[in-house]
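Fill in residues.
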C-alpha cells in the first residue's frame, strides 16, 4: 500500500509501543458496532492504516472492539476520523459512528473513582458510554431504567457512566438506554477496558 508523504506516516509510527504515546497528545477513537476481522468491520491493520492515511501520526488498535489510540499532531482528531471513514467503507463495508475523546480525560475520570459506592451485590459491570450531542438527558441523575438493570450515575460532555445489574438471565444495555433517551448513536466500553487502556498507553499503575 502506498501512502501519501503528507500524512507523516512511517513504519516506526505504525509499530509504536503502547507506552510511547504521550497522554496529553493522544486521543481515543471509539467505533460503534465494530468487531475487527468480522463482516462489515476492518482488520486491525486496515483500521490503523486508514487512520494513518487520513493524517494520524500514529494509530494503535486496542483489543478487537473498535477502540484505537491515535496522535494527530496539528490535525483535529475528529477530522482525521472523518477522512478515514470512506476508506473503511470501501475496504470493509464499515459505516457506523465513531466518537473521539482525549486520553487524558479518560484518565481524569478514572482518577475520581466515580464508581466507588455505586454498586451492590447485583452489580454486573461498570461502563462508559460515549455519544455526541448536547441534548439534555431529561431526568434526574442518578437515573435507573424500568427494569432496574441500568443505572446511569453520571452523564455529561458526551460520556455516561453506568452500573449494570443482572436481573434474571440478562443484564441491561446502557447503549440502548442512552440512544433511546437522547436519540443519538452511542457505544459502550466496560470500565475495566478503559482502565486497561489508560494503563497500557500511559504506563500508569
Amino acid at each position: 500500500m502506498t501512502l501519501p508523504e503528507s500524512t507523516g506516516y512511517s513504519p516506526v509510527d505504525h509499530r509504536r509501543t503502547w507506552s510511547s504515546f504521550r497522554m496529553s497528545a493522544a486521543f481515543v477513537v471509539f467505533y460503534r458496532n465494530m468487531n475487527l476481522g468480522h463482516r462489515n468491520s476492518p482488520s486491525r491493520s486496515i483500521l490503523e492504516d486508514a487512520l494513518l492515511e487520513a493524517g494520524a501520526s500514529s494509530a494503535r488498535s486496542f483489543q478487537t472492539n473498535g477502540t484505537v489510540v491515535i496522535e494527530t499532531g496539528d490535525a483535529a482528531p475528529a477530522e482525521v476520523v472523518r477522512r478515514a471513514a470512506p476508506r473503511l467503507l470501501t475496504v470493509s463495508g464499515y459505516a457506523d459512528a465513531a466518537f473521539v475523546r482525549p486520553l487524558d480525560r479518560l484518565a481524569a475520570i478514572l482518577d475520581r473513582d466515580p464508581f466507588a459506592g455505586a454498586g451492590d451485590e447485583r452489580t454486573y459491570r461498570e461502563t462508559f458510554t460515549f455519544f455526541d450531542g448536547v441534548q439534555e438527558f431529561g431526568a434526574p441523575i442518578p437515573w435507573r431504567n424500568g427494569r432496574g438493570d441500568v443505572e446511569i450515575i453520571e452523564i455529561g460532555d458526551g460520556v455516561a457512566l453506568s452500573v449494570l445489574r443482572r436481573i434474571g438471565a440478562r443484564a441491561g444495555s446502557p447503549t440502548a438506554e442512552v440512544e433511546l433517551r437522547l436519540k443519538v448513536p452511542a457505544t459502550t466500553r466496560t470500565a475495566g477496558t478503559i482502565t486497561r487502556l489508560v494503563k497500557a498507553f500511559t504506563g500508569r499503575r
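Residues 28 and 81 are 11 Å apart (CA to CA).
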